[in-house]
Design a protein that fits this description.
4-stranded parallel sheet, binds zinc ion
């Protein structure tokens, strides 16, 4: 299951990436066209998530998959697609660029951690985005993410 989100759903896109889903959002589009015209006719293999009724209508008319999102709050948006998506933090995709993360081997992990001066991460399981040079690990922020999901009834207790 792959997604493409309009720019109004950026936070939803980040949650989808955090949960391991291949999700495009505005920064990935190389186009001079208006976003709605562009999204109406591209990515037929992805479910478009949008808050724009006109765009939704154009997309459905083409026979391409789309979901119209009603809420402006991210947790309500997440509930609207709960039938499609299993929200759960995973270190699989970069939240910034959607690239697949690479799990670091011990030697490389040590090198990067030392370069960044993050020695307390030495014994953690680390993932890396080669494009953004961003390091990911299971830590405090994961606990916060899980609490957010629990609070809004998006995961089983
Ligand atoms: Zn990245």
């Amino acid at each position: 299951m792959k997604f493409v989100c309009d720019r109004m759903l950026k936070r939803l896109a980040i949650w989808l990436r955090l949960s391991g889903y291949d999700t495009l959002c505005d920064e990935s589009f190389q186009t001079r066209e208006k976003e709605d015209t562009f999204l109406a006719k591209n990515f037929p293999d992805r479910i478009l998530l949008t808050r724009d009724k006109e765009l939704y209508r154009m997309r459905i008319a083409k026979g391409y998959p789309a979901r119209l999102i009603k809420s402006s709050k991210v947790w309500e948006q997440m509930k609207e697609i709960k039938d499609l998506v299993n929200f759960k933090p995973k270190a699989e995709r970069c939240t910034l660029c959607n690239s697949q993360l690479r799990k670091l081997e011990k030697a490389e992990a040590e090198k990067i951690v030392k370069e960044l001066g993050l020695n307390d991460l030495l014994n953690k399981e680390l993932w890396y985005c080669d494009k953004c040079k961003k390091l990911y690990w299971v830590g405090y922020h994961w606990k916060n993410m899980l609490e957010f999901l629990k609070k809004h009834g998006l995961v089983e207790e």
